[in-house]
Amino acid sequence: MSEDTGQRYGFEAFECAPALRLQAHEKVAALQFAHLNGRLDKIEEMMARLEKRLWLALFGMIAAILTQTLQQVLSVTP
């Protein structure tokens, strides 16, 4: 028997409407998943940037509190 040449049992290969519809649906689904993955990647990048900003804000607030505490301690003890 020949290896997947599109012919079976001596008949010529042909395209049928249900198979074409299925192929079109598979292509559309693949494109939708590719687009969805791209959007999810962008969302993950935005979340990473937001996380960095939040950590920076937190460290800034901690630094401000420590600075005020240190100033109060230095002003009390000459």
Brief characterization of the structure:
With 78 residues, the chain is mainly alpha-helical. It is built from one helix and no strands.
Which range does the strand content fall in? under 5%
Number of strands: 0
Low-confidence stretches: none
Instruction: Determine the structural class based on helices, strands and strand pairing.
Output: mainly alpha
| Anisotropy-based shape | rod-shaped
Distance between the termini: 99 Å
Major sheet: size, sense and barrel closure?
none
The gyration radius over C-alpha positions equals 32 Å
Helix count from the secondary structure assignment: 1
Quaternary state of this entry equals single chain
SSE order, as H and E?
H
Helix content bin? over 70%
State mean pLDDT (0 to 100 scale): 87
Q: Main traits of this protein?
A:
single chain, 78 residues, mainly alpha, rod-shaped
What order do the helices and strands come in, and which of them pair?
Layout (H helix, E strand, L loop, with lengths): L16 H60 L2
Protein described:
With 78 residues, the protein is mostly helical. It is built from one helix and no strands. The chain is rod-shaped and about 105 Å long. The mean pLDDT is 87.
